[in-house]
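pasting for the record
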Amino acid sequence: MYTYNYPRAALTVDAIVFARVENEYFILLIERGHGPFKNKWALPGGFIEMDETLETACKRELFEETGLKVEQMIQFKTYDAIDRDPRHRTISVVYFAELNEKKEVKGADDACRADWFPVSGLPELAFDHKQILEEFFGNL
């Protein structure tokens, strides 16, 4: 269906979902079930489908990996470092949603687990997700 003469970058979305509980921010992360970065924690996200918008893709990936549904997500920033994904050239558009509580989540699809972490005590993160969260919470 699509034919190009030049290589194209892959387009992904990542979801920052957070809740503030007793003056502390908690972030929703997934444990990756596949490489790269298998068994490392990451923001929920993935590749867009050809027939969906970026926000729709982000909400879909969030639901597939955590079971969490959100009504609306807001675009934060685009990350395009050439080496951010060891598989190939990948550009990610990051969205966010704030919840008024930590909702129940469960790892599914290509996520082994999903869980909430205090921003002050994050595990080692895959890709450039540490940088993304530092920039996001620095702007909050």
